[in-house]
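Task: sequence design from structure.
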């Protein structure tokens, strides 16, 4: 491994795991590269969680993909890059000739840089395909329609460090102490200053341990809880009437709607006592500046868009927006999920949040991209692509840095459907489960082996220079896309990621003032940054909203139960989530030795009462079964889990064979968080 370093031997970089964008240095050392802490980074102040500390372990891993591979019978044949790209270009051209560009699918990656994602979707759309999407569909797609409707901007409103200024932090559906560990640093700082922490979560998580008030809510009842809190706030006159009157529309409809959700009715649905609902509502409303944090416990539901809407409503009626210590914090998942969305790697948006139905916005892009005619209207989402492959409507899928087989819900079905494609090309750093079923595998450089920018969940755009050579013939996704696009006649004449970032600045208004130099300075720039001398915008909505007339929209929603309920055959509910040691589908963390030593296998948490009832003992290998399949896991009998609900982390391939494929009708996200299930000793054990 060749190490490329600045004169001081230190290369600044951005953590490749969660969306917080923690910074650190890669240090040139005698035994290989090492980590040097970046003490002046504004988000992590030098600290890293276990995953960040282990990030370098994947770089020199013996299982890294080193050469292009073509499926040959049951095995693989090593081929040259020229042959690989010519084959992929030929398959794309044939698909367009035989079926039209609508038969092509493109899955981008929230792990790749802004520049790579930008060119990836540009290539797809210039070829005429609308079918562009990424893993954001499975984590925060409800955030986009809900917050666009509410505020006119679908993103986090305040920086992570500003949590230290909150009088009340209300985390709902977010186990941030495990999933975004450096958030806890700032939440605890708020607590040290007298702030109050409320956590609504069905599990007794490490985040709930640090709460002053834990609302142990029934699975999938978030809207009932939020409406119950808003009922109290409105009935007791605790809402911010000045803010509501001057800066919002829709309050009267909301007040009508939540009148039904008395604390007693909300208690009946949510399982949280009426007195706790009253207390949470009063503390959130009365604090001088309150922040709401949410994550996939809110979004991964068949009513995820309603859940996000209700969170926005609560912040709006209390006026807890547009100032320090307040705000709404959608905690995104992957390191560049915000950037991939900004770059338009979504079936419903072009770069810069231009809707696929916005004819004027698309016309501007057509001009910027040289006069090409671009497709309009909704494309296939990441969830729809495997279904379309099964139906024969999608013939070729090109996947960049995404393990769709493991991360999709009801994943056994998706694997069968993808097998129906004429051609599957996968570009990644490891032979993932998705790569294993591909026809062509292209080896990619990992984050530290290439240059480019990443946008963290707090809208912080940071440049990460290349520090290390990639293994074998692996190369950056950017260079692969450029070479492929040129073979397809698209004339992608880019000298490198700097030139692509400059084009992004011309196309995406909020990135207009962000250059490679500014993004490369410590902490980068927080968008919107509309011109070169602009300092960036850490706190949004200070003077108004981007929604029509500058007013935010309060939108009343009703509680809807989850799609699956307990039944005689499936008497329990299964929910899924993350643990601090692993990340997403686990393609990187399950190859990291130090992490695997600490969390080596799939487990299922079972309440002691359920364990007694179903004959399960702590440490047993058990079988968990849903309507879609069964999986084995090691039983952990624990009171962290409430009675009647099981918990499994989704970092192991088996978990998503169980999850539900019922989707939110607006955001098209599956209901990963609730599935009816049963548990028993594994047969034959
Ligand atoms: S909190 Fe997130 S960004 Fe920071 S070190 Fe951990 S995984 Fe990386």
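Answer:
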């Amino acid at each position: 491994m060749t190490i490329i370093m600045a004169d001081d031997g230190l290369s600044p970089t951005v953590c490749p795991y969660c969306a917080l964008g923690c910074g650190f240095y890669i240090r040139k050392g005698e035994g290989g590269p090492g980590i040097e802490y970046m003490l002046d980074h504004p988000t992590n102040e030098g600290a890293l969680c276990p995953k960040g500390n282990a990030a370098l372990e994947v770089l020199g891993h013996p299982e890294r993909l080193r050469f292009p591979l073509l499926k040959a019978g049951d095995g693989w044949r090593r081929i040259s890059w020229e042959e690989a790209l010519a084959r992929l270009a030929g398959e794309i051209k044939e698909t367009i000739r035989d079926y039209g560009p609508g038969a092509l699918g493109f899955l981008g990656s929230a792990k790749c840089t802004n520049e790579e994602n930008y060119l990836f979707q540009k290539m797809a759309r210039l070829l005429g395909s609308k079918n562009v999407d990424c893993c954001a569909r499975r984590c925060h797609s409800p955030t986009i329609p809900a917050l666009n409707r509410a505020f006119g901007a679908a993103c986090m409103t305040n920086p992570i460090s500003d949590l230290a200024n909150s009088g009340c932090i209300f985390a709902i559906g977010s186990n941030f102490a495990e999933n975004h560990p450096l958030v806890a640093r700032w939440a605890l700082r708020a607590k040290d200053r007298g702030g109050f922490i409320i956590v609504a979560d069905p599990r007794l998580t490490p985040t709930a341990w640090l709460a002053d008030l834990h609302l142990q809510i029934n699975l999938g009842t978030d809207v009932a809880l939020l409406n119950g809190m808003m009922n109290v706030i409105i009935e007791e006159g605790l809402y911010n009437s000045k803010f509501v009157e001057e800066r919002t529309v829709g309050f009267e409809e909301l007040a009508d709607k939540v009148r039904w959700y008395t604390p007693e009715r909300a208690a009946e649905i949510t399982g949280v006592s009426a007195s706790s609902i009253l207390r949470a509502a009063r503390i959130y409303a009365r604090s001088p500046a309150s922040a709401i944090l949410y994550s996939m416990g809110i979004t991964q539901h068949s009513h995820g868009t309603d859940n996000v809407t209700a969170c926005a409503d609560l912040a709006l009626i209390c006026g807890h927006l547009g100032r320090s210590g307040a705000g709404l914090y959608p905690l995104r998942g992957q390191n560049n999920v915000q950037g991939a969305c900004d770059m338009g790697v979504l079936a419903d948006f072009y770069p810069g949040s231009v809707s696929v139905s916005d004819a004027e916005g698309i016309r501007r892009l057509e001009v910027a991209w040289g006069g090409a005619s671009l497709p309009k209207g909704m494309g296939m989402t990441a969830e729809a692509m495997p279904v379309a492959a099964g139906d024969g409507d999608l013939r070729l899928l090109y996947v960049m840095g995404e393990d769709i087989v493991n991360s999709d819900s009801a994943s056994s079905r998706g694997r069968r459907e993808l097998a129906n494609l004429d051609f599957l090309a996968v570009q990644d750093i490891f032979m993932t489960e998705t790569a294993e079923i591909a026809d062509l595998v292209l080896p990619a450089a990992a984050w530290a082996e290439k240059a480019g920018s990443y946008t963290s969940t707090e809208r912080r755009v940071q440049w990460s220079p290349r520090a290390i050579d990639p293994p074998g013939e692996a190369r950056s996704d950017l260079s692969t896309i450029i070479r492929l696009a040129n073979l397809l006649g698209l004339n992608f004449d880019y000298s490198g990621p700097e030139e692509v970032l400059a084009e992004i600045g011309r196309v995406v208004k909020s990135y207009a003032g962000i250059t490679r130099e500014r993004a490369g300075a410590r902490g980068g720039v927080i968008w919107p940054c509309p011109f070169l001398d602009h300092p960036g915008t850490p706190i949004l909505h200070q003077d108004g909203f981007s929604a029509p007339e500058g007013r935010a929209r309060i939108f009343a929603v009703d509680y809807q139960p989850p799609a699956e309920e307990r039944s005689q055959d499936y008497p329990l509910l299964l929910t899924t989530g993350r643990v601090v040691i692993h990340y997403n589908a686990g393609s990187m963390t399950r190859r990291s030795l130090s992490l695997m030593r600490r969390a080596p296998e799939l487990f299922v948490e079972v309440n002691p009462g359920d364990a007694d009832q179903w004959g399960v003992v702590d440490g047993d290998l058990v079988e968990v079964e849903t309507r879609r399949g069964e999986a084995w896991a090691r039983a952990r009998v624990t009171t962290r889990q409430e009675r009647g609900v099981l918990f499994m982390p989704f970092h192991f391939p088996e978990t998503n064979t169980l999850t539900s494929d019922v989707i939110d009708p607006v955001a098209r996200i599956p209901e990963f968080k609730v599935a009816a299930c049963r548990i028993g000793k594994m047969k034959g054990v």
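The longest strand covers residues 629-637.
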